[in-house]
Amino acid sequence: DAGVIQSPRHEVTEMGQEVTLRCKPISGHDYLFWYRQTMMRGLELLIYFNNNVPIDDSGMPEDRFSAKMPNASFSTLKIQPSEPRDSAVYFCASTGERGDTQYFGPGTRLTVL
Amino acid sequence: KNQVEQSPQSLIILEGKNCTLQCNYTVSPFSNLRWYKQDTGRGPVSLTIMTFSENTKSNGRYTATLDADTKQSSLHITASQLSDSASYICVVSPFSGGYNKLIFGAGTRLAVHP
Question: What is the pLDDT of residues A97-113, one digit of tens each?
Fold first, then answer.
């Protein structure tokens, strides 16, 4: 199994631009999570999906952030417009059952200039 | 306020030595406690998951303990190897919450030197 796949691995963009991060969960997993990690705040859960449906997006920082999961094998996290304070590593994770181990992707390092 | 605090913040040990990382939490009641290992530039990898009724769980050279009465957990690493150099994150899931209520510790950064 290839594990959770994220793209791109690195993204550098200018303030005000739209950024789209992509995630392919492990096949058969029905929970998908988006996290953000910074030195100051550590790991933060942004949103999670169950069977492609967003369950809780209370961790999404602002309306500039949106996430979709059009099918079981693909999810996107979009930031529009991006700001320098959005610079962080964004992780996607998936799991097969509530309470089971979450498998993290390699992350996307986002830098907003 | 629910919190997960880890100590020490960072630690340096020599290869072959043992070490213990601490996690104190105020989350109550809680469903489970997890320890993750995160290598630099990589995503976190689960080491152990313990429910409130479990006292210890091992994964190779890693042994996690849990004392639900004192709300403390520890991660013991035996015969450390250079590859153990990483951040170790303690994560507590409140009993009533879904995944959105996971409480993350700030992590302990471990460096194993030859």
Answer: 765 678 999 999 999 99
